[in-house]
Amino acid sequence: MSALLKRALLCGAIGLSLTACGGSDNNDGNSDGSGIQSPPVLPPAGTGVTVNTAAAWQQYLTTPRRWEISGQQNGNAYNLALVLTPGPISTFPFNGQLASTTTQSLRLTFAGVVNADTEGTLYHTNNRLIGIVGGSGSNARCAVIRTPFTPLPDNSSVGASGTIISLDSMAGCSPNAARVGTVTLTWSVEQDLAVTLFCLSTLRQDSAGVPAGSETACVQSNAAGELAGGARLTLRRTDGTEISGKNY
């Protein structure tokens, strides 16, 4: 089905309202050639469903996946994509703790130009998030635990939600780096057009508590927490611009 970007992306002085001509998700579960699997599409769920959100979170962290929403506007191609890439066990640079890693990228490309991009590496042990690193080398910035990780429940009804973890955003990754804000990760279970969604939202605030952008990734899930090909992706930038689309 077609996908709709519900609000305009303000690019300089030009407002662009984007309407998709079709999704590019490989719904048969085949690889795109990079080794990242496009999840299969599950049938829509009925009302009163529950989701094993603990299992959905584990799949999110440990399985390479790609969800895409793409189309054409005025002859220009655009693409909104969420990519998850599990990596090797690595040292979290802020405190030296060994952890599994998963790179998460949410990116909007219009006419071949990246208009919005959020990317970070999640560090986790036994599915418990211990920190996030954005950037690399001398430009790397760490987000470190502010409030403890709260495990997701095994059985969550549509409408349920909770906070996974809050982190302090640091100016770098050294132990003496200054705190420059916070990052809060929340989960929810939602239903949209009879599609059941496991949603993760990341809210960033500066040191004064002023919102500094956010993103929400909602991906289709069944009761067992198996993630599928449906997705609704939303980027909110610091200027208030919201870019949102879905592929179902």
Q: What is the terminal-to-terminal distance?
A: 5 Å
Q: What class, by secondary structure content?
A: mainly beta
Shape: globular
In the predicted model, the low-confidence regions spanning at least 5 consecutive residues are 1-36
Question: How many strands in all?
Answer: 16
Tally of helical segments: 1
Strand order of the largest sheet: 4-5-6-7-8-9-11-12-13-14-15-16
Strand content: over 45%
> How confident overall, as mean pLDDT?
83
SSE string, helix = H, strand = E? EEEHEEEEEEEEEEEEE
The amount of helix comes to under 10%
Q: What number of structural domains do the residues give?
A: 1
Radius of gyration: 18 Å
Largest sheet, strands/sense/barrel: 12 strands, antiparallel
What does this structure look like?
The chain has 248 residues and is mostly beta strands. The protein has one domain. It contains one helix and 16 strands. The strands form three sheets. It has a twelve-stranded antiparallel β-sheet. A two-stranded antiparallel ribbon has the order 1-2. The N terminus is likely disordered.
